[in-house]
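re the bet — no i am not wrong, look at it urself. input seq straight from the record:
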Amino acid sequence: MGYALAYPGTILGIILTMIVIRRIFRAQAARDMLQVHADKAASAFINVSIVVENKTLKKINGEA
């Protein structure tokens, strides 16, 4: 009989805990997203393409 009462209580407890945690961190997540957008606008990232050549692998594969 104890399991019949404990299981639903445990499931409801987990669900309620998840809801409370989402509400607590929702405001903080919105603030963090605004800060990330501001940081990206202020930084100067440069796109770069890099080609890596490994002559040893070409020899193993039988290429010139």
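see?? The radius of gyration is 27 Å. told u. also The CA atoms of residues 4 and 27 lie 37 Å apart. so pay up
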